[in-house]
């Protein structure tokens, strides 16, 4: 193991270092200003496509003709892509909350979240040599209690506490609003009866197993966007289960030729769910426009886009086509 002894560099020294590696910097003053607001380390991930390769290794030297503006432009593209994806995820999240509350309340009453019997029993799972207890019921009860005690921002929580003494927890339509997306995903995954989650999943045109898998991946990408991390060419650590076909909604003609670990498949997932969650969504129009605006730096291959992706029915139909999900 080596000892890390690199010293921090001033902005001028950072620019000199980049120039010494062959990067063209037409405006040092503007580059320094951008480094002050973003940081060298964060931008270093966007430098990689412009560096030379020696075999399978990436050199510290830049390819001939590479400029600082190319790197910064790629960073801006990724930022806009994250914002677009995050907005689409919000629409999906709101719809998932609504269906969880409605369908489970209709079946189990207003306080279904307090009914342990509808959830799978506690189990222990071994991950990397560690035993992890999976008990979603206890976890959401703990979260609700913490929110009741500490959440001063939500007026409806304070209103319930001051007006009602029984039951101690608010109804599900309040409790679900203060849950994280991860908890929504876990609720769907840990419902005891398959019919309970299938009612929710089929609303979005998906079998239960695929729906739960997709929620898990959506939560993963949501966290990437929320923490402003690189998205555009990321290999997904949580790979969604493949949807082979759909009888009710537009989907990819041949999912087998699409890499599920790349961003393109995830974008297809979002567009698929938005057909139900927000049928008038402008997501695909905005995505297509963004890719066109940054076509000089948005490497579609790095994101897993097939060459003929724009001809897929999923991306070519009318924006405001009214699509309804019918369970099959």
Automatic annotation (TrEMBL):
It holds the Pfam family Abi_2. It comes from the Bacteria. InterPro entries: Abi_system_AbiD/AbiF, Abi_system_AbiD/AbiF-like. This is CAAX protease. It comes from Tannerella sp. oral taxon BU063 isolate Cell 6/7/9.
